[in-house]
Amino acid sequence: MKKFYEMSVKERREELAKKCGLTKEELKNLDIGGIDVERADVMIENVIGVYRLPLAVAQNFVIDGKPRLIPMVIEEPSVVAAASNGAKLTLPDGFKTKVDDSIMIGQMQIVKIRNISEAEKNVLKTEEKILEKCNDKNSTIIKLGGGARRITTKQLKTAVGEMLILNFHVDVLDSMGANTVNTMLENISSFVEKLTGGKTRLKIISNLADERLARAEALWKKEVLGGEDVVDKIIEAYEFSKNDIYRCSTHNKGIMNGVDALVIALGNDFRAVEAGAHSYAAFNGYKPLTKYEKTRCGDLKGSIELPMAIGTVGGAIKSNSCAQLALKILGVKTAKEASGICATLGLAQNFAALKALSTEGIQKGHMKLHARNMAIAAGAKGKDIQQITKQMIEDGNITISHAETLLKNRS
Ligand code: MEV
Questions:
Q1: Are the C-beta atoms of residues 203 and 134 closer than 8 Å to each other?
Q2: Is pTM, for the whole model, over 0.85?
Q3: Considering 253, 301, 328, 390, which one is annotated as catalytic?
Q4: Which residues belong to CATH 3.30.70.420 in the chain?
């Protein structure tokens, strides 16, 4: 049987349709890339077209005991293959996840308060009443069981005077939460102004969703990695990231290669997830979002923890047929499940990068794909693509001009 990566796009689609129960209609969406220009025109302003990126499926993931196919949208070669390889080496056990409830923090800034401590006390005394006002019975999120749960306060002394900051901790269930929280805060701002005697300014969600953390972990056995020596090399690579911010930035970027690819496939706001991830990493000085340790048996234990503000419901997700398809391929309904898979993908991606970087380097695999791209760019078709790719690698000359020369010599 052919492996997934050896199949043609048509064969992969057939395989996926069988495994995930996709209809012909759903498969057609893969050609338009989720939205057409009419749909795009009502999503943002000044639309002139749609912009497409490759959509692939990562293989070999077993997460909390369930096999999962993971849709990934990314332009960078090697990322999907690396994640699939990283996951394969955890089999048969796979990954375990643990995800918080979907609590987002909405912030309200209050300025020009005469007595800030008195105002703060008033807010805390009236917390229940404020929460009641936040949780308007008519809103969908409240009907579904979500809503504001508590308020915390903070006084800031700034260059332009004192401010009182209210953090609203809101359970947004399966939504990303920005619209819910922002609307909630705007609706109660005049009540808060009366209560504090101040003026409310910013009313906005925080992307540092540190009460909405997703975690994943896995064990890579030393014999699967090629010996304890490889475990040691990966730990050395991790220590490098832990102790050097220049390396740590790239370490976390590699994690986000996986996380963002799934977040985009799910039609979510990847900038929000990026902001959350990097600010969380910087909480106590910028650190890696993953951790590695050697177990007593000499195996490698890896884990990840990061904020994951994503939803499985919401306007942009509903209007993108590829996002709907991605949810179906993934086989999830709740934001919590999807978040655990995002974290898992980030961990698999990071493990694969550290393994490659600390052993053979990443350019070998990377150049193979790059050579294929060059062959196609030079005009190779069908069987020629593979042969010219192979020749370029053998010649150690991966350029369009060399691909063109090889192509000319063949015809
Ligand atoms: C490239 O997109 C990602 C890596 O640089 C990550 C890393 O260095 O850990 C390979």
A1: no
A2: yes
A3: 253
A4: 103-205
